[in-house]
Write a structure and sequence with these properties.
Layout: E1 28-37, E2 52-62, H1 67-75, E3 86-90, E4 98-102, E5 113-118, E6 129-136, E7 138-149, E8 161-168, E9 171-175, E10 183-190, E11 202-203, E12 206-207, H2 209-212, E13 226-232, H3 286-295, E14 300-302, H4 306-310, E15 316-319, E16 334-337
Antiparallel strand pairs: 1-6, 2-5, 2-7, 3-4, 3-6, 8-12, 8-13, 9-10, 11-14, 15-16
């Protein structure tokens, strides 16, 4: 629409660009785009080649459709499918003067993240110009164009997991701001559940490092209000002069939401496993499911009681006023108060 958002996208500062005017459903908006123009990195020589790559760095967050909304989109012919971000570049021979150079560039999954897009093969070396097009509900925080040296050295050091335990944390206080993802105050938590718990067994409270040591289908199963506290060994020495150390938490796991249209979404079972062909696992893999239950039987000894949530003294249901202006208001929203 011709709005200049240059300053908003020049730094990661939680000041987000909303490129769409409205949304059709949570996560689905009319088609929109952000056009990006950058200076040439080197005016006197080519900035890409055998030893250099060009990258577009996009920082933002997405408010996605959920399972029920995806079913609604699939069943409603008047609603278009989600089109995740694509990259377009100027082309005088293309309709409208732009052509699609990357069909799907990826998107920042969930809360604010930076994604890296290799544009070495599509960038115009005289004028780095791009359009990022989508109809998904994405808010962009920053955009950068960088040239990376392929000769950079990386050394990976694995730090030993020294302890891990399953504990109860409770429900952290949510902090909401317009056009921003909800964040949470970890040190301000309530022990009272905000929604009914999942049925099914969970990992007992206490030590669990033996379950996290290997990728072996022995897994910690936790639900809302739980947490895993982990400690790792300290690196043996500081990085050499001129080097920088980054820390990456590499986790392998499975996340299942409790949407009413998610198959088995109200239970911690059936357990997932690496070789399953679909979820829930088909009947043809019943033996595999049984073996995974036996493999984890020694720690799946805890349950969150569903009935206790509804039978709390003086509990009642009352309408809930939404504090998030972007939250969908379709249907009745309720909260439990005491």
């Amino acid at each position: 629409r011709g709005r200049d958002v240059t300053r908003t996208l020049q730094s990661i500062d939680q000041d987000y660009v909303q490129a769409f005017e409205r949304r059709m459903r949570q996560g689905l908006c009319p088609p929109h785009h952000v056009e990006l123009r950058f200076d040439r990195p080197f005016a006197d020589r080519p900035f890409i080649g055998a030893d250099r790559k060009a990258y577009l760095l996009m920082t933002g967050w997405i408010l996605p459709t959920d399972t029920s909304l995806n079913i609604q989109l699939d069943q409603n012919p008047d609603l278009p499918p989600i089109e995740y971000p694509s990259v377009w570049v100027p082309d005088a021979d293309a309709q409208g003067g732009w052509r699609q150079a990357i069909e799907v560039m990826g998107f920042p999954g969930g809360k604010t993240k930076t994604i890296v897009v290799d544009v070495s093969d599509i960038v115009n070396s005289q004028s780095p110009v791009f359009q990022i097009r989508t109809n998904a509900q994405i808010y962009w925080d920053a955009a950068s164009f960088v040239v990376g040296q392929s000769s950079d050295q990386v050394v990976t050091q694995t730090l030993e997991l020294t302890s891990a335990e399953v504990t109860r944390h409770g429900f952290s206080q949510a902090i909401s701001r317009p056009r921003s993802p909800d964040t949470y105050d970890y040190h301000n938590a309530s022990a009272e559940a905000k929604w009914p718990p999942l049925c099914g067994p969970l990992t007992r409270l206490g030590s669990c490092e033996n379950l996290l040591a290997e990728v072996d289908d022995r897994m910690v199963v936790i639900a809302s209000g739980d947490e895993i506290r982990m400690r790792f060994a300290i690196p043996d020495a500081a990085p050499p002069a001129g080097w920088q150390r980054d820390f990456i938490l590499h986790s392998v796991g499975w996340d299942k939401d409790a949407d009413l249209n998610t198959l088995e979404g109200q239970s911690s079972l059936p357990l997932p496993y690496q070789t399953m062909t679909q979820y829930p696992p088909p009947l043809t893999e019943a033996d595999m499911q049984s073996r995974r239950r036996q493999l984890n039987a020694d720690h799946l000894l805890r349950k969150q009681t569903f009935r206790d949530f509804w039978r709390r003294p003086n509990a009642m249901i009352q309408p809930m006023e939404s504090t998030n202006p972007m939250k969908p208001r379709a249907g009745l929203e309720t909260t439990i108060s005491r």
